[in-house]
Amino acid sequence: MLFPQIGNMGGDWNTKKFAHTMWRKGTRLARDPDGTLIKASDVTIGSAFHVIPDGLNELEHHRIEEKAKAVVLLVRLDPRDLKIQPGREDWSFDGIVAYSKICTHVGCPVALYEQQTHHLLCPCHQSTFDVADGAKVVFGPAKRPLPQLPIAVDDEGYIVAQSDFHEPIGPSYWTRLKHTSDGLNDSSEGSSH
Amino acid sequence: MGARLDSAASGTANWVDERTSIGSFVKFIARKVFPDHWSFMLGEIALYSFIVLLISGVFLTAFFVPSMGFVTYDGPLETMQGVEMSEAFASTLHMSFEVPGGLLMRQIHHWAALLFTAAIVTHMARVFFTGAFRKPRELNWLVGFTLMILSLAAGFSGYSLPDDVLSGNGLRIIEGVTRSIPILGEYISYWIFGGEFPGEIIIPRLFTMHILLVPGLILGLIALHLFLVFLHKHTQYPGPGRTHKNVVGLPLFPVYTAKAGGFFFVVFGVIALVAAVFTINPVWNYGPYDPSPVSAGTQPDWYILFVDGALRLMPGWLFDVIPMEWELWGYTLSWNILIPAVIVPGLFFGFLAFYPWIEAWATGDRGEKHVLDRPRNVPVRTGLGVALIIFYVILVLEGANDIIATLFHLSLNDLTLFLRVGIFVLPVLGFLITRRICFGLQRKDRELVLHGKETGRIVRHEHGEYIEVHEPLTEHERWILVSYDDIAPLEIAPEYNERGVRRKGYRWDRFKQRLSRFYFEHRVSPVTPEELESASHAHH
Prior knowledge:
A: 193 residues; mainly beta; 3 helices; B: globular; Cytochrome bc1 complex cytochrome b subunit (chain B)
């Protein structure tokens, strides 16, 4: 009697959704919360943008759930300061980099950007990430760098995503690595919304 | 008039008694004797703030809409005009700004919750330091402990209901912590949230938990808690004529009925005053939940701070080299979350829950204890209590480290680094210093009993010697200073009997003996009548 009751409490139990966000090849980056698009020329050196995927605000269902995974912080550094990570040579554009805004510790938005040090600080537990160096952890309880969103610039000058994130965003979980090698590079396999 | 009133009262009482036989019960209850001490009020404060919570909570449920369905705000608050929000948040704004007295009720409810948890913790500390958890009250300690955990659950579930940015981030942290649980974490997360975070069901679920499940359990356990207090009779502080076999105090009726009844209104009044004057949780400043924004200097309610502090304190990399998140055979194990949010609170609360048994192993004492300890007379327990408090306070401070750093112009990182070391060092130091202070106080007590109080009167003897006159203690004063148990470390039977056969249960005995030595190896014994006798001879 009780098992079907408890069994239904978890929705569809499809935890693979942790691994997919709204970002696809060509999704334009838009400002949070108004949804206006961002051109590479808008992003001056030292500035930071809070970003959502274009089309998020128009979602009929699961808008908050998608937003909770898809939010991104976009910053432009002096290209000389930027240490490009191996294998990610074409993920940035002229010093512009985009990282998931969801902390790899327990999932707070990593919303505080210190322009001088290029550090991103999570106000919840003070995990600090170095944006200039692959968003690696420089202080605090997080262990993993923030996942990077590969970006490019389209014909009209708007910043677009090259694909979804290449790993699950946010806090760790038991099968995270399984989801990481789960064909995520193939942006066609996304969540069903 | 008076006679008519009397006959009406006795008539009614008679009517009730003939149908319920409650008379003898009332007589029993009314004549129940309770000892008097200010520290016995702490539990009462918890009880009364819970009553305030029930009263104000019923009012809030009349207006709160536990739904995550979206609405667009069109109420009187200018700053929220046209903002999309959940019905939960909108109804919170509605009751705050449109329902007369609604904001006051919300504030009363929130302040009462903060006082409720604080009173429980303080009451628990009183019970701990005075040894009121000893036989026969171990079970009631567990009931009280469970009430403390339930108060945290009540607090946190209520805190999350308005669905504002701050509490939403709190839920997100809970989700992140849940995910870190090995193997099952991601499924427990789905189970709690009905799918992906935040989903649309968590607020209704928390609502049911907050207004039905948790308060129901609390109410039932409070009844059990008080029933056990009646059954065991209340403990008393040491004093003239007070023993483990009697209770010295005043009757429930009329003395404590009047005191407690009055005290309820004092507690209610203080909560109402604080609620009327000090803003708490102004969710309209934070805005409705949105997974993107967050501001600096955001703290949860005080009783959750220690978990938040533990999460902040734990490094993701130990000494910048050893990762605290392990990837083993393709699976991820997040020590950086498990240790501060699951293991440390688990050990902390586990130790608290089972403390009465730990101490009973050390004393080996099977007798009933109705006279409380003066904390100095059990130095190790008092030291452990202080160490636990220091440990807890460090986590609380770390939970507010950004506020402290800003306030005192400190480096946030240095403060965290200091507390990372401090969490290991300071509780130990606190234990040693407290135990030392206890010994000192006990020796001072011995000195007082043996040689009396200094009077400040200097007398010169005929042969020129100056002495200060000491005034002997009265019997009542002496009673308090000498009437405590002098417990020696356990002696155990040897490992092998005379035939060289190893004894069963030796290891367990050995453990208890070690524990007992830790507690009682160093101790200051109370003054014996013989010592008193010889000391008084020496003086005259």
